[in-house]
Amino acid sequence: MSVLESLFDAQLSIFGQSILWREIVGNAFGFASAIGGLRRRVWAWPVGIVGNALLFTVFFGIAFANPQHTTLFGQAGRQVFFIVVSVYGWWRWTSLRRDRGAPAITPRWASARERLAYLAAWAVGVVVAQQIFVWVGTAFAAPRWYYWCDAWIFIGSIIATYAMARGWNDFWLVWIGVDAVGVPLLVKSHFYPSAVLYVVYAGLVAYGFTVWLRSSSATLPTEQPPDQAVVPSTDTAPAKLRTTSAGGHR
After folding, report:
1. Residues 80, 39: contact at Cβ < 8 Å?
2. What local confidence, expressed as pLDDT, does residue 4 receive?
3. Cα radius of gyration (the chain)
4. What pLDDT is recorded for position 132?
5. pLDDT at position 81, please?
6. Predicted pLDDT at 141
7. Is 245 in a helix, a strand, or coil?
8. Residue 241 lies in a domain
9. Is 1 part of any domain?
10. 204 in a structural domain
């Protein structure tokens, strides 16, 4: 066995439960990315991509052996979509950033049309995804509720990541909905480091939501059009804002 293979398969035991080191390291990258997202820093996206790649190998047990002998199709699949959406978010935040030392975006609430669109996409996506997971997991014995939970997490995570890329305050609330289902499912499936991180995320989400909400309240006295992104002016007066079209970033 090579050094890389040894590192890839390295495990530790906690209370008799074997846990892959890459699950711990992947979640550490995910937590760092969440901190960067809270602070609205561009580096949050590439850091998150590293964590997503590691966690994909953890949850896709049907191809990469894991101590739990379990495959979470939704958890694995969402890592792939995380990477895709993160590339978009990385590009968008980089293109909107006016000052390398300043936050990349100014948050706002999604408009009524945007909110209706992502809620509808979430509902339809869950119905479609759970059926796909049933078909893909025919050789993997699991109760039907498992596929519904996995689909809820999968689609909700994609919606949350996209909303973060757009700079919507809503993405924090979407994460709360994802975590409410994700934590119990991870505990039941014995992915304990991921479950613990999700619990920590809950506190981070609550704090991040208040930070983004204060920022949007301070800089957006009126609702902006859906295709507009507000970026702080380089002028030192905090009341002055420069509105830049974001239509080309969809």
Report:
1. no
2. 60
3. 19
4. 87
5. 83
6. 66
7. strand
8. no
9. no
10. yes
- Judge contact between 112 and 226, C-beta under 8 A: no
The pLDDT value recorded for residue 227 is 47
In the prediction, which pLDDT does 56 show? 87
Each residue of 93-136: pLDDT tens digit?
Answer: 888 776 666 677 788 999 999 999 999 999 999 999 889 888 87
Q: Supply the DSSP symbol for 109.
A: P
Whole-number Cα distances in Å, 235 to 34, 107, 242:
29, 19, 9
CB 159 within 8 A of CB 118: yes
Number of domains observed in the structure of the chain: 1
For Cα atoms 75, 192, 15, give the angle at the middle one, nearest 5 degrees: 150
Q: Token digits for 239? A: 């009341």
Residues in contact with 67: Cβ distance below 8 Å, sequence separation at least 6, in sequence order: 11, 17, 18, 19, 20, 190
**Helices of type H across the chain:** 3-8, 21-38, 44-59, 73-96, 112-136, 144-166, 170-188, 192-219
The pLDDT value recorded for residue 221 is 46
222: Cα separation from own chain's centroid? 28
From CA 144, how far away is CA 208, in angstroms rounded? 34
Domain range holding 141? 15-221
**Residues of the chain predicted below pLDDT 70:** 1-18, 61-74, 98-102, 137-141, 218-250
CA 104 to chain CA centroid, Å, is: 18
CA-wise closest residue to 96 among 221, 197, 243: 243
Whether 82 is in a domain gets the answer: yes
Alpha-carbon distance of 240 to 209, in angstroms, equals 24
What CA–CA distance (Å, rounded) separates 120 from 171? 15
Cα three-residue angle 150-155-161, rounded to 5 degrees: 125
Residue 5 confidence (pLDDT): 59
For strands 17-20 and 11-14, give the pairing: antiparallel
Phi, psi of 69, deg, nearest 5: 50, 40
